[in-house]
Amino acid sequence: MALHQISQPEMFALRFYLTSILLILGITVTSILNVCADDPEEVDQEVVVNTTLATPTSPGEFNEETCSKEHNGCCNELYIGEEDSLMKCFAIHSAKMPPPGDSDTSKALKFLSCFVECIYKQKKYIGKNDSINMKMVKNDAEKMYAGRPKEKEYYIKMYDFCRKDAVGSLNIIKNTPSGKAMFKDACRPYLLMVFLCQADYHKKHDCPYFRWEGNRKDGTEKMCEAAKEKCYAVDGIVVPKSLSFL
Prior knowledge:
The protein is an all-alpha fold. 53% of the residues lie in helices and 0% in strands. Helix 3 crosses helix 7 and helix 4 (134-144) runs antiparallel to helix 5 (149-173).
C-alpha cells in the first residue's frame, strides 16, 4: 500500500513538534539524572559526556580547521535525522500523534518513542535485545555518505557513543518513580534514549559544518546554509541534493 505523501508544511509541523517533545524529554531526563547523582565526579567513563564547546568561527573564515568547529548561531538546533526516514515513519504513525493542544506528556512521549522505533526499524539498526547493531550503522553510513568521509566517521562515532550513553542513563532513570511513569507506555525506551542523545550530540561534542543548521525565527537559516556550502567547497565536495532534515 502506498504511503501518503508528506507536504512541506506537514514536515515543518513535524519538525516543530518533535523538537518540542525532545526538549521536554531532555529537560526531564536531565532533572532525574541530577537528582539521582550521588557524586557528580564519579561518572562511568563509558558514558561520560564531553561538555567542552568548540571555538566558534568568525564570519568569512572558512578553512579545514574552522569548518570542523562550531559556527556562530548554527549549532543550536536539535538533530532529528534524514528527511526520508522521517517522512516514512510520520506517514505510518501520524494517526497516533496527539492532537494540537493536548497537554498529556505521556501521550506525546508514547508517540515519539514509537516514531523513533520506526526510524530504527526502517534502517535495520535494531540488534539483539534492543541494542544498536553497529554493523548495520556502518554499512548504512558507507552508502549515505559515499564520498563524504568526515560525515561517515562522525555518524558512526555518534551512534557508538550514544548506544553506550543510553545504557547508563536508562539504567538510572527506569529505577525512579518518575522514570517508570514516563516510560510506562513507551515503545522501547532504550531506543528513545539513543535518539535523545543523538539529537544534541553536536552541542556536547564537535559541531562540524555538516551539522550546521540555522533557524528561521532567529534569521540564521540562510547564513548557516551559505556557510555550510562554503565548507563543502573547502572539502572539494558538491553540496548533496538531500541534506539532513535538521
